[in-house]
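Worked example 3 (structure in, sequence out).
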């Protein structure tokens, strides 16, 4: 068993660098079928998704089930949110009912701040994505996937491509991969460039850098976060998309990543989605094991602090 304890996980900076490696090791053990801990008493988890999700929602549910946790169902559309209940009051309610861990996705950036500052709340909060802010569990499963290929991060060349401004995945991965020692490059249309990323790496074009990269990380165009006025998919794909010509230029050990869902034909052509160098499906698979490792780390802290 890993020796990590996490009270909440809302930003990648909540996980110390040595604990990132421990989480990866534990997730890899779980992937190989390692025994899971018996918590003796029931652990209750609830997943509150105020934005749509397939991967994060279902892989947390799978991870919770595999760990023997009970899931208290929560659907925004049938909850008292529709009667004006605030996020804080929803969390206060589930906390009072005895829910131990809440995974929350919400459009408001840093929605979690008021919750984790509230000492009277006993539950642990996991950020399943806060607006354009962060997506820490996606980033941890991404670094697990990179580690599986390279067994290290130092000096790895990673290019993050696309809608940088609106992508919480880009923000978490840039922070975490820089901390782990990777060399970062960014490609995006000017309108989707995020100046804060200039602290983390260098801006370039995909055609200039692709043959030197170890990891090509594509991002979903976040259509729901901008009005799309002037967006031309053919033009975007020509400059920022992975096609067969660019795929052929990848170096031998290079891998292609995308947090998904994928806009096929926009960020990546169909034939590259499940190509040999693509790790897109493996990222989804790894998400279950990394989320199990994160849930275990949170349970460790909760057991110790009792
Ligand atoms: N990558 C990701 O967060 O996917 P979902 O939006 O389907 O959860």
């Amino acid at each position: 068993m890993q020796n990590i304890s996490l009270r909440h996980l809302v930003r990648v900076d909540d996980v110390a660098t040595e604990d990132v490696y421990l989480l990866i090791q534990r997730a890899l053990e779980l992937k190989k079928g390692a025994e899971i801990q018996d918590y003796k008493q029931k652990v209750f988890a609830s997943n509150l998704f105020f934005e749509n999700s397939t991967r994060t929602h279902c892989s947390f549910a799978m991870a919770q089930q595999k760990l023997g946790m009970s899931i208290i169902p929560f659907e925004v559309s049938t909850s008292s949110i529709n009667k004006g209940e605030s996020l804080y009051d929803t969390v206060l309610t589930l906390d009072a009912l005895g829910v131990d861990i809440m995974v929350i996705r919400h459009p408001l950036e840093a929605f979690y701040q008021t919750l984790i500052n509230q000492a009277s709340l006993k539950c642990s909060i996991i950020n399943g994505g806060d607006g354009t802010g962060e997506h820490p569990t996606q980033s941890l499963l991404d670094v697990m996937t990179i580690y599986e290929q390279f067994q290290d991060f130092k000096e790895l060349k990673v290019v993050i491509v696309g809608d940088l401004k609106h992508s919480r995945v880009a923000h978490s991965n840039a922070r975490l991969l820089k901390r782990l020692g990777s060399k970062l490059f960014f490609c995006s249309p000017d309108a989707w460039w995020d100046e804060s990323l200039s602290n983390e790496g260098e801006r370039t074009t995909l055609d200039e850098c692709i043959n030197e990269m170890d990891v090509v990380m594509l991002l979903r165009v976040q259509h729901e976060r901008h009005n799309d006025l002037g967006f031309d998919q053919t033009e975007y794909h020509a400059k920022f998309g992975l096609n067969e010509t660019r795929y052929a230029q990848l170096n031998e050990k290079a891998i292609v990543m995308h947090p998904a869902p994928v806009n096929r034909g926009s960020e990546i052509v169909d034939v590259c989605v499940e190509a040999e160098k693509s790790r897109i499906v493996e990222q989804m698979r790894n998400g279950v094991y990394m989320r199990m490792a994160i849930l275990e780390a949170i349970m460790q802290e909760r057991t110790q602090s009792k």
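Notes: The longest strand covers residues 124-130. The mean pLDDT is 96.
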